[in-house]
Amino acid sequence: MAVMARHKEFDRDEALDRAIGVFREHGFEGSSSTMLVEAMKIGRQSLYDTFGDKWGLYVEAVGRYSAGELEAHRERLRSGPRAIDGLRAMLERVAAQAHLACLGVNSVCEFGRRHDDLNKAREAAEAVLQPAIVARVRDAQAEGDVAADLDPQAAAGFLQTNLAGLRIAARGGASADQLKILTAYALRALR
Amino acid sequence: MAVMARHKEFDRDEALDRAIGVFREHGFEGSSSTMLVEAMKIGRQSLYDTFGDKWGLYVEAVGRYSAGELEAHRERLRSGPRAIDGLRAMLERVAAQAHLACLGVNSVCEFGRRHDDLNKAREAAEAVLQPAIVARVRDAQAEGDVAADLDPQAAAGFLQTNLAGLRIAARGGASADQLKILTAYALRALR
DNA sequence: CCAATTCTGGACTGATCATTCCAGTAGGAG
DNA sequence: CTCCTACTGGAATGATCAGTCCAGAATTGG
């Protein structure tokens, strides 16, 4: 049996959350190891022991961030009473939070599709989110709130594009009121 | 009279265009002075003499890029025969070009609204584009192609948000077909 | 106690970065 | 021809960066 000795003192996920806070605001290239170490409140060596290197930390941060957003989206999608309310709730949550930069959008902007490991970190969440939205769109079609002739896949893609657009608009300085209006327009396309 | 001596040999705007090519793909932090000098095909000293420093070059690049996009948008907006065709042409041009990263969107992502000089470089174009779109939306309303009860300002903002969304979607890997569908959905919201 | 393990923080390394300096070339104006 | 200016390219400079090393402190199990 391995001798256990001292256990980990800092919470890995907590440290990761703090790293997310740095990366989402400054991007990968704009975040220095010193900024990260200070924000994460761990020693420099602990960072490298735990996450390998800065890129590994970034990929993990994007993965964790995406998973968190996925969960938040799914929770909102479940709201009712009607399916369209769930779709609206998803959009409106993003509008309400969009004063903080989105690490997903930022990582797409900064790296496009250049890095397979980064693509994977994003796509893991994407692969779950897209069908969840599609299902909700179908429900809304059955309830008569979304036009029956729309392709649910395409409609879901459109909504996701508008999530990204919302976030860029917010980072560019759009007001909360403007964001609210943008969500209404996005839903309007589905009538 | 000032003695003229040797005139400038490289074309400032041409060099700027080449710098735009680097910045749009790699962002500000991801572009090194050496990458820039090589792409711009000028000496290192010429870069600093002409643009001051890397940040100055970046701000000028964003300004020039924005002005170029503005002109391209305005040209498409003029297409006909109906105003809605102009709006569609604007969206479809962006969809067609979106395989190249957008320096405007990238600069918003990377810096938000942190730098006044950068904000100004973007807003100069924005201040012209928004009214141009609004005017075209009004025309389309008069022609019955856009719902009369929509606020033209809000509708124009929605279209611009969808331009940004389109670009993020493309950088994230969306196909030309998907982008085409997204433009149709954006216009659908205005019916 | 001891041995094993995980921290911390500071010092270090080598690379890369933006920026400046400089020596030299080239071309237009007088 | 002779200044003056515009360029080039390479060699500095000093800062910052990612990543490593190390010595010591802390905390567990045996």
List keywords for this structure.
homodimer, 191 residues, mainly alpha, Tetracycline Repressor, domain 2, 0% strand, elongated, DNA-binding
For the CA atoms, what is the radius of gyration of chain A?
A: 19 Å
Supply the number of structural domains of chain A. 1
Mean pLDDT of chain A: 94
Share of helix among residues of chain A?
Answer: over 70%
CATH fold descriptor of chain A: Tetracycline Repressor, domain 2
Which two chains form the greatest contact, residue counts included?
Answer: A-B, 38 and 37 residues
Task: Describe this protein's structure.
The structure is a homodimer of 191-residue chains. Chain A has one domain (12-188): Tetracycline Repressor, domain 2 (Orthogonal Bundle). Chain A has 9 helices and no strands. Chain A is 73% helix and 0% strand. The first copy, chain A, is mainly α and 191 residues long. At the A-B interface, helix 6, helix 8 and helix 9 of A face helix 6, helix 8 and helix 9 of B. Chain A binds a DNA duplex (30 and 30 nucleotides) through residues 2-10, 32-34, 42-46, 48-49, 53-54.
Give the topology, please.
The structure is a homodimer of 191-residue chains.
Chain A (H helix, E strand, L loop, with lengths): L11 H15 L6 H8 L3 H8 L2 H24 L5 H15 L5 H9 L4 H27 L9 H20 L4 H13 L3
The structure holds a DNA duplex (30 and 30 nucleotides).
